[in-house]
Amino acid sequence: MTAVLSVEDLSVHFGPARPVDRVSFHVNPRETLAIVGESGSGKSLTALSMMGLLPRNAKVSGRVLIQTPQGPADMLGLPEKRRRLLRGKQIAMVFQEPMTSLNPVHSIGHQIEEVLIAHENLDRAARRTRVLELMNLVRIPDAARRIDDYPHQLSGGMRQRVMIAMAVACRPRILIADEATTALDVTIQAQILQLLDNLRRELDVAVVLITHDLGVVSQWADRVVVMYAGLHVEQATPAQLFGDPLHPYSYGLLRASPRSDAGLTYRDAPLAEIPGSIASARGEVGCPFRPRCPAAREVCGTVQPPPIQHRGDRLVACHFPGILTQEERHVAAYA
Amino acid sequence: MSLLTLENVATAYDTPQGRFRALEGVSFSVAKGETVGLVGESGCGKSTLGKTLMRLVPSDEGSIRLDGAEISQAQGRALMPVRRKLQMIFQDPFASLNPRHRIRRILTGPLKIHGVASRAERNRIAEEIVQRVGLPGDALDRYPHEFSGGQRQRIGIARALILRPQMIVCDEPVSALDLSIQAQIINLLAQLKAEYGLSYLFISHDLSVVRYFTDRVLVMYLGRIVESGPTRDVWNNPRHPYTRALIDALPEADRPREAAPLAGDLPGVQNLPGGCRFHPRCPYATDLCCRSEPLIDAKGGTHGFACHNPLPLKA
């Protein structure tokens, strides 16, 4: 199985800061890959790099290889004109805030149509038909009546459906959803995630979910990449990650969330905290998680651990992978 | 003994399209030392309820009693004793602190307004509280922008706490924070509650946090409480289909996802459906639901729900 997209050794610099630091991963056809991390982890910059949409003052190195019918193309190495051909046709993106991503003075039908004008050679009537098809595809009820509505006339969930219709208008192979459901209520979030998963199967598109929500990851992703302070610290399937987190950061995140199965409340036990904040990683040598890590040893302060293969298909960037999970099992065995 | 009691409270807003009730028939009480959760989706009125309690927006009808005193009409100076007993923590720690004031001024301000102690004594109280909420010792002489989101929320907590209130309304206090910071803030709120015997009204859209942190829960839909009761009972045996849908839609690890999420959008209070306000989205709606609005009956904090066709009671 050839990857539809591979990110190789991607780094993004702004002056001396390196918010994305030697990140590598790939996306398989028709899979859902989640990139999870908190603010400042570099997940959104990674997504923008994949689209070739980084701001001008960013210095970027590495490669973002996208499979095209003409062979692999490096999004980072291409001139802007060629990048535009990849966007929409091969790779597309849905953003967090549908209200600011849509133009308030154009009807939604017109905004979906613009994508077709840019990329497809269709006459006006054919475009209108295609726009209606797309609106039906993303389950906007009563499409023929809504086509001339403006964004403010739609709810947040419906606006996000319009964004998705625009993103899939030219049948891309990869769809990036950057916190696309974060601003939505839980019942609407579930609808949109369901829609993305249906499109993944119907349109044969790989979905990259950029999220901070571990619940979303566990329920929708086939594989997950955990990022921390610009680094790619762990890669696994959700079952592996939730059952046996290898990186102390992944372990801490899982323990910090009020979990459904335990049924514990604040009267029983405090939540497990990760002390400090992500900002404490700035300017550190060694492992960026060391200041917050309960298992840190001397080597963690001097050598930054590279991501290494662990037990076959997993990746982890830690000198002592699985150390906290092992300790917990050890304690549980004697409790 | 209940500290706060609301009876039949309604709050309306004027809009260009007319006057709409954002809250209707809201009744509940909060006991001393109790944490009551308030959940619902955007536009359901949960923030309006918080603001109504704080008298930041006027209520149209009903009674609000705090520690025995009626406060629903209090304004101006009459609000001073209310503020000493009831404080609020806001969602956005960036917007709720004045960027031009040092932390010292933000924290000693309430003491000064309420005429508490001498300047030296006020500074001492501020120093103590800063330490108690886990801020660095030099925090008092710095500005809000020098702090991270989690630290700013600690400042917001310190400000709410400095008058030693009996109750704090927490409006989405951890929603803007990263997961690893959320746990720190919730643990801090739990410790402070135990130390000072505080009551909380904890407003949140995040059910997993509410389940962990509250003793009782109120579920709101379009301005009305549709289900309420001890958090454990409501979570384990929701009777209102909307509560069930909220719990099912919650993406949680260790749980398979629901096959069919709740259909439809949340209509605004501007176009409220007749009958039960949930009926257009409800999979169990009958003729009765389209005609008559079910009302909640939850006397004395027991499990209650506003539904004609409730989900079965588990044995």
Quick synopsis:
The complex is a heterodimer of chains A (335) and B (315). Chain A has 335 residues and is an alpha/beta fold.
Description:
- The complex is a heterodimer of chains A (335) and B (315).
- Chain A is of the alpha/beta class and 335 residues long.
- Chain A is 34% helix and 22% strand.
- Chain A has helices spanning 43-51, 80-86, 98-101, 108-119, 124-137, 143-146, 156-168, 186-203, 214-220, 238-243, 248-256, 323-334; strands at 5-14, 17-27, 32-36, 59-68, 71-74, 91-94, 174-178, 206-211, 223-228, 231-236, 308-310, 314-316.
- The longest helix of chain A is centred in the middle third of the chain and has 18 residues, at 186-203.
- The relative contact order of chain A is 0.13.
- Chain B has 315 residues and is α/β, with parallel strands linked by helices.
- Helices cover 31% and strands 22% of the residues of chain B.
- Chain B has helices spanning 46-53, 80-85, 103-113, 119-132, 149-161, 179-196, 207-213, 231-236, 241-249, 287-291, and strands spanning 2-15, 18-31, 35-39, 61-66, 69-70, 86-89, 167-171, 199-203, 216-221, 224-230, 304-305.
- The mean pLDDT of chain B is 91.
- The interface between A and B is large, with 49 and 45 residues.
Task: Please mark out the parts of chain A with pLDDT under 50 across 5 or more consecutive residues, or reply none.
Answer: none
Mean pLDDT of chain A: 90
Please name the CATH architecture of the largest domain in chain A: 3-Layer(aba) Sandwich
- Oligomer status: heterodimer
List keywords for this structure.
heterodimer; A: 335 residues; alpha/beta; Rossmann fold; four-stranded antiparallel β-sheet; 12 strands; globular; B: 315 residues; seven-stranded mixed β-sheet; 10 helices; 11 strands; 22% strand; Peptide/nickel transport system ATP-binding protein (chain B); P-loop_NTPase (chain B); ATP hydrolysis activity (chain B); Oligopep_ABC_C (chain B)
